[in-house]
Amino acid sequence: MAEIKKRYSDEDLAEFKEIIEQKLELARRDYNEMMKSLRNDEGNDVADTSPTYKVLEEGSTTQNRQETIMLAQRQQKFIQGLEAALVRIANKTYGIDRMTGELIPKERLRAVPHATLSVESKMKKGH
Predict the structure, then answer these.
(1) Can you give the pTM of this predicted structure?
(2) DSSP per-residue letters across 82-111
C-alpha cells in the first residue's frame, strides 16, 4: 500500500517560498504607501475655501482616512499571514491543512499562499 504524501517536497517548498517572498515584498510596499498617505493627510488643508465646503471636505477626508486605516490593518494582517507561511516553510509544515492534516492543493496555495485550510475544510468550518 502506497504511503500518503504528508508534506510538500523541498522543491515545492522553494517554489512556494519564492511566491510568498514576492507577495510579501509587494504587500510591505503597499502597506508603507498607505502609512505614508496617512501621515501626509494633515498637509492637505482647505483653510482658504468656504466654511461649508471645508466641513464637507473634512468629512470626506475623515472617511477616506478611516478607509485607508482599515485597508492598512487588512494589509498588515496579510503580511503577518505571509510571514507565518514562511515559518511553516522553514519548518516543512507548509501546505498542510490544519484541520485534516492532508496537503492543501497546490492551486489553492498558489492563489492564497498563506492558506492553512483547504477549500473543503474552510467550508466545513463555516467561513
Answers:
(1) 0.77
(2) HHHHHHHHHTT-TTB-TTT-SBPPHHHHHH
Q: Read off the pLDDT of residues 20-57 as tens digits, 9 standing for 90 and up.
A: 999 999 999 999 999 998 888 555 555 455 555 555 56
Q: Which residue has the cell 487588512?
A: 74
Under the phi-then-psi rule, with left for phi > 0, alpha for psi from -120 to 50, and beta for the rest, what region is 95? left
Angle value at C-alpha 77, between 24 and 30, nearest 5 degrees: 45
Q: At what angle do helices 51-90 and 10-40 cross, to 10 degrees?
A: 160
Quick one: which H or E segment has residue 15?
helix 10-40
Q: Are 13 and 89 in contact (CB under 8 A)?
A: yes
Let me know: does 8 contact 16? Beta carbons within 8 Å: yes
